[in-house]
Every structure is written in C-alpha cells, then in structure tokens.
Design a protein that fits this description.
With about 375 residues, this protein is α+β, with helices and mostly antiparallel strands. It has 2 domains: about 15-245, Rossmann fold (3-Layer(aba) Sandwich); about 255-380, OB fold (Dihydrolipoamide Acetyltransferase, E2P) (Beta Barrel). Helices cover about 20% and strands about 35% of the residues. The protein has a 6-stranded mixed β-sheet, with helices on both faces. Strands 13-12-11-14-20 form a 5-stranded antiparallel β-sheet. A 5-stranded antiparallel β-sheet has the order 15-19-16-17-18, with no helix packed on it. Strand 1 and strand 2 form a beta hairpin. Helix 3 crosses helix 4. It is globular and about 75 Å long. It starts with about 20 loop residues before the first strand and ends with a strand.
Length: about 375
C-alpha cells in the first residue's frame, strides 16, 4: 500500500514570498505642527483581505485611514495601490471609497437614489446605474426597501445602504471607519458576519478601523495594533491573541495576568523565572531570547488560569490567594483573586454549574495554576 500523504496547504498571500502586496504603505508619517499623529508606518496588505487597524483613541488609526483616502497629505512616505503611486492624487481620483461612521445618507433621497448618486456623478448610463443598484440591493437583501427614505430604516438597514453605496462604485479599496459603532451589541454581532460574507463575495479589499477588539478579532484576516502613531504588532487574530509581541499588546488585547520577574534559568526548551509578583517560580516554554538575569514580564490569559481550593502538585506556576470578587457574565464567571504579594489576578471559568453550586466562593483561600505552554514571556 503506498504511503499516505497529506495535501499541501495553500499559503495565505502574506505568507507567500512570491505574492505581491496590493496596498503598500511605505514609511508614512503625518505631523500636525509639533504633534506626530502617524510615525513611520509601513504596511503591506494583499488583495481580498479584510485588514483591521486596531487601537485606542488617538493612536493614529483614523489619520492613517484618511491618508489612504486622500483627505490628508502625508508629511513623508508614500502609498501605492495595485502598483501605482497615489500619494499625491486627490481623493476624487483615487480608486478608493470610504464608509463613514455616521453613514452620511441624504435624508431627502430614497434608498435607490442614495445608492445611485455616486454613479450619476460619474455620468454612467441609466442602464448600468440600474444594474449596479439592483445588484447591490440584492447583495444585502434590501430590494423591497428601494423606495424608502433613510428615516424609515433601522440602524442596521442604513448601515447596509451605506455599504452598498460604497461598493457599487467598484473601488479597488474600501475603507471603513468604525462602521458598526452606532449599532446595539446584538445587531453589531450579527452585522459583523454579514459584512465578512459580503466582502468575501465581492472580493474587494477592506481596511477597517475600530477600537473594538472583539470586532477586529471576529472579522479580520489580519490586524495591526497601533499605539502613539506606530504599529506594535501585525498578525492574524489568533497569533496576536496567543502570542503578543509586547506588554502593551498583551494588555490591550483581551485580559491578561501580568507578572514581572527575573530569568534564573535559560534552556532551549524552557525558561525559569523568579517572580515576587506571583509568589512562585514561573516555568515557561513560550519564550524568545531571554538570557539569565534579564528582567521580563510573563503573561497568562485568565481563561487559562485554573482555580481550586486544593493545592495541585509542584511549586511551579502555582500561587495562592483569596477570592475578593466574582463577576458573573452568564456564560462564564471571572474570579478576582488577591495574592499574598497584594497583586490581584483573574481566573475565568465557563459556567457549567450554577454559581451557588460552585466549590469556590467569596473570601475562600484558593490556588491558581497554569500550564507552562500558556505562559508567554516578554522582554521589558
């Protein structure tokens, strides 16, 4: 019998050294007087990606989006789309469309007229305009709403109209500035998946700006974390979450238990860290080059931090504390435990039992422990 071979997995565009980026941002900076909003940002984005720029207020993500749209001129650097340098092109000449947070629909126009407006400005013939508008409305399942005015639509429906209006112009790049911020949580979650499905069907490259981590994690092919005008990390959502490259990213994406310590043992398969914060020896397998004596931080996700009223075996990756608070979130509960060092850390557990049936209660003395591969070591 011939040996079984697994089929070669196709590389994603960003993993393929032969693939050519569709959007290239090369060392872009933008100054407003003495304030540097964007500082030497370089990015390669590939055709068909849904790429997210994620960061807190004032990190430079919206400024970068406006530079791509042509609403701002860069202080230095250049932007290429599909091989063409568009750095100095005015906004109206760029093969780019932007969907604003406010949607900016014309209140006196119907849904059909709103979508057709940009196409009429391009002086397309009536038949092509009708075909594109009809096709766009079918895409978002809103054909029956064509004659309604914006005030007769829900927030989610207005969001879809704004999206179609952007897509019918067939841009090479669609920019979305916090497009779901105006929607309530349930509708926002539903619309996230709708947006992803539409993007996959039309094949247009999307760049999404958001401060919502969950939104970026759910929708993105890749994401860039920004802080103070710089990019801190680029990667697929899973890698950014599981393997943050810095303390800032570890603390920004989700929740993390952070311990400071000093490396006392550095071996090829593990490092050993002495931490007063944790009150125990930290044994980690996820570590880069961290020589003995270097100061590091160790990050462990709350959902990977186990909790028990009885002591597990061994004294590594196991610390002790008192439960100070329990946050009940429906599908899970988060235990806030104060260690002997005074530091408060979290343990998140799925609610398989009712809270009243749990072994761990308020003010209980508990043990917190985790596996070596769940500790991420970051140099300070």
């Amino acid at each position: 019998m011939p040996p079984l071979t697994q089929p070669m997995r196709k590389l994603e565009s960003w993993q393929d050294p032969q693939a050519k980026p569709y959007i290239q941002i090369e060392n872009i900076s933008k100054n407003y007087g003495s304030t540097q909003a964007v500082r030497g940002v370089s990015l390669s984005i590939y055709k068909g990606e849904l790429f997210s720029l994620l960061g807190g207020s004032g990190c430079g993500k919206t400024t970068l989006l406006r530079l791509l749209a042509g609403f701002e001129k860069p202080t230095s650097g250049r932007i290429l789309i599909d091989g063409e340098d568009i750095t100095n092109w005015p906004a109206y000449q760029r093969p780019v469309n932007m969907m604003f947070q406010s949607y900016a629909l014309f209140p006196h126009m119907t849904v059909y007229q709103n979508i057709a407006f940009g196409l009429k400005q391009e002086k397309l013939n009536k038949a092509e305009i009708h075909e594109r508008v009809q096709g766009g409305l079918e895409l978002v399942q809103m054909l029956s709403y064509a004659n309604r005015k914006p005030h007769q639509l829900s927030g989610g429906q207005r969001q879809r109209v704004a999206l179609v209006r952007s897509l019918v112009k067939q841009p090479k790049l669609l920019l979305l500035d916090e497009p779901l911020a105006a929607l309530d949580k349930k509708l926002r979650e539903q619309t996230q998946f709708e947006l992803v499905n539409i993007q996959e069907r039309v094949g247009i490259t999307f760049i999404l700006v958001t401060h919502d981590q969950e939104e970026a994690m759910t929708m993105s092919t890749r994401m860039a974390i920004m802080e103070e005008g710089k990019i801190r990390q680029i990667g697929v959502p899973h890698d950014v979450y599981e393997f943050p490259s810095s303390r800032y990213v570890a603390e920004f994406i989700g929740s993390n238990n952070i311990f400071e310590g000093i490396v006392t043992e550095d071996e090829p398969d593990h490092v050993l860290i002495e931490s007063k914060d944790a009150g125990c020896l930290l044994y980690a397998t996820q570590a880069g080059a961290v020589p003995i004596g270097s100061q590091v931080v160790v990050a462990i996700r709350p959902e990977k931090t186990m909790i028990s009223t009885t002591a597990p075996e061994g004294n590594r990756n196991c610390t002790k504390g008192v439960v100070r608070d329990i946050a009940y979130l429906g599908d899970m509960s988060i235990y806030y435990v104060q260690l002997e060092s005074g530091k408060v850390i979290q343990s998140a557990l799925p609610n398989l039992l009712r809270l009243s049936e749990r072994d761990v209660k308020w003010d209980d003395e508990v043990y917190l422990y985790w596996r070596a591969e769940n500790s991420v070591v970051l140099a300070t």
